[in-house]
Amino acid sequence: MKQIAIITGATAGIGRATAELLAGNDFDVIITGRRLEKLDLLEEQIRSKTEADVLSLAFDIRDQAAVNEACEQLSGKWENVDVLVNNAGLAAGLSHIHEGSVVDWEQMIDTNIKGLLYITRVISPGMVKRQKGHIINIGSIAGKESYEKGNVYNATKFAVDGLTQGMRIDLIDHGIKVTSIDPGAVETEFSLVRFKWDSEMADQVYDGYTPLYAEDIAEAILFAVTRPPHVNIDDMLIMPTAQARSRKFNRKN
């Protein structure tokens, strides 16, 4: 029987790449996100290219009631989630703390921290009941070291790092694996979202070097979830060759 993985934020970037890769490697997948039309396109693509079964759930991860309602629809085999990939997340704005937007702050906190908690709270009890499962939290180099104007985004990713450690401790007696995958610079919609879809600003983030791509992180996730039962990847920090720290790049490429 195939394992079942649920991936949040699957409509683009790392989430989409992860759904496609897991589906091609003997997983059935539950794909979630806010944009139903993109979920439909992804579902169609997965079905046409793989033998995986796919279930799409459209909801806003920031809305606890919507998360609960969507997950209550899971029935039959879909109730038995083996892998939860907490990928949904974003950076909004890039400002010094005294100039920051409270709206941006709340969006990041609600998505990166509270959304992760909402769906983990719904999915993890089933794992505990079955005494097996794997939770993958997508962190960031921004959760390892702070940088100028990163403040609240940094804080949310530091929180993800702390939550991952806490989950690992809380769930170890139930045979559940917990992993943090922490990318450096990845060229996805990340910078477009941060700069309010200003493509010129977003392009400058990746100028002069080769960043990571969504597929690179998806491959790391696949590696983590396919280790033998006695192996848990606690934490994986993945950087482009041209990046040494959050803001240290070799832009000569």
Please give a structural write-up:
By secondary structure, the protein is an alpha/beta fold. The protein has helices at 13-23, 36-49, 64-71, 102-130, 151-171, 190-194, 199-205, 214-225, and strands spanning 3-7, 27-33, 54-58, 83-86, 133-138, 176-183, 235-238, 243-245, 248-249. It has one domain (3-249): 3-Layer(aba) Sandwich (Rossmann fold), CATH 3.40.50. It is built from 8 helices and 9 strands. The strands form 2 sheets. The chain has a 7-stranded parallel sheet, with helices on both faces. Strands 8-9 form a two-stranded antiparallel sheet. A hairpin with a 2-residue loop joins strand 8 (243-245) and strand 9 (248-249).
Task: Please outline the helices and strands.
Elements: E1 3-7, H1 13-23, E2 27-33, H2 36-49, E3 54-58, H3 64-71, E4 83-86, H4 102-130, E5 133-138, H5 151-171, E6 176-183, H6 190-194, H7 199-205, H8 214-225, E7 235-238, E8 243-245, E9 248-249
Parallel strand pairs: 1-2, 1-4, 2-3, 4-5, 5-6, 6-7
Antiparallel strand pairs: 8-9
What's the gist of this structure?
With 253 residues, this protein is of the alpha/beta class. The protein is built from eight helices and nine strands.
